[in-house]
């Protein structure tokens, strides 16, 4: 797949509150003793299994996820609370193959004069409504995250974890290191973390952008 126009919005949150949302065996990972919760809107294009062509419904998928940063044993990775996507077929396939909490959503994106507008509204039957609406514009030149920096902690993650039938499973992703740009971000609505009892109404503590890269994932 190819991830495109990836925005990262990161908030410092209460570590004690966030730790209680994780299952046994999954430990909250912290940067300088601080916990982080992130919202990541982007597009996926050309999604397909290795050796097979792209099929209808997977050519261009809008997605937004809510995630935090964890360890299982010595392995660092990402814990997803939700992944809302604008393709019912992609949601069904991802839930079946990965067990990740993918949900149906109506997602609209556009770009004009370098500013991206992104609106997502969850529509998944039987799940709490959640929405995100924002405008953002990348600024500055893309650079690699320095080893040991906050950006490296937040973005250079090559595993994710999911609970399947009472056990913690791991998936892995492979891609080049992120080249990140500063991001001017204006959020109009964000209720993605409401189900965790965490409000993300204030501006994020860190926001960056990438035009994207090619990614391989295995679960």
Q: What report would you give on this structure?
A:
- This protein has 219 residues and is mainly β.
- The chain has one domain: Acetoacetate decarboxylase-like, CATH 2.40.400.10.
- The chain is built from 3 helices and 14 strands.
- It has helices spanning 15-19, 88-98, 150-155; strands at 2-13, 27-28, 35-45, 60-72, 75-85, 102-112, 115-122, 131-138, 143-144, 159-164, 167-174, 179-190, 206-214, 216-218.
- Strands 1-3-4-5-6-7-8-12-13 form a 9-stranded mixed β-barrel.
- The longest helix is centred in the middle third of the chain and has 11 residues, at 88-98.
- The radius of gyration is 16 Å and the shape is globular.
- The chain starts with a strand and ends with a strand.
SSE map:
Blueprint: E1 2-13, H1 15-19, E2 27-28, E3 35-45, E4 60-72, E5 75-85, H2 88-98, E6 102-112, E7 115-122, E8 131-138, E9 143-144, H3 150-155, E10 159-164, E11 167-174, E12 179-190, E13 206-214, E14 216-218
Parallel strand pairs: 5-6, 5-10
Antiparallel strand pairs: 1-3, 1-13, 2-4, 3-4, 4-5, 6-7, 7-8, 8-12, 9-12, 10-11, 11-14, 12-13
């Amino acid at each position: 797949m190819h991830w495109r126009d990836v925005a990262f919005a990161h908030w410092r949150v209460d570590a004690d509150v966030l730790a209680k949302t994780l299952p046994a065996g999954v430990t909250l990972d912290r940067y300088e003793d601080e916990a982080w919760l992130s919202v990541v809107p982007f597009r996926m294009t050309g999604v397909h299994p290795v050796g097979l062509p792209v099929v209808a419904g997977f050519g261009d998928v809008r997605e937004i996820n809510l995630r935090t940063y964890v360890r299982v044993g010595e392995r660092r990775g990402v814990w997803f609370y939700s992944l809302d996507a604008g393709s019912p077929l992609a949601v069904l396939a991802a839930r079946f193959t990965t067990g990740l909490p993918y949900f149906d959503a109506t997602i609209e994106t556009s770009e004009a004069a370098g500013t991206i507008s992104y609106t997502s509204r969850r529509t998944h039957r039987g799940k709490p409504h959640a929405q995100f609406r924002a405008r953002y514009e990348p600024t500055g030149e893309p650079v690699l995250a320095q080893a040991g920096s906050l950006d490296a902690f937040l973005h250079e993650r090559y595993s994710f974890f999911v609970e399947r039938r009472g056990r913690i499973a791991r998936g892995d992703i492979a891609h080049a290191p992120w080249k990140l740009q500063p991001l001017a971000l204006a959020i109009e609505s964000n209720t993605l973390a409401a189900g965790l009892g965490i409000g993300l109404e204030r501006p994020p503590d860190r926001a960056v952008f990438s035009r994207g890269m090619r990614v391989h994932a295995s679960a």
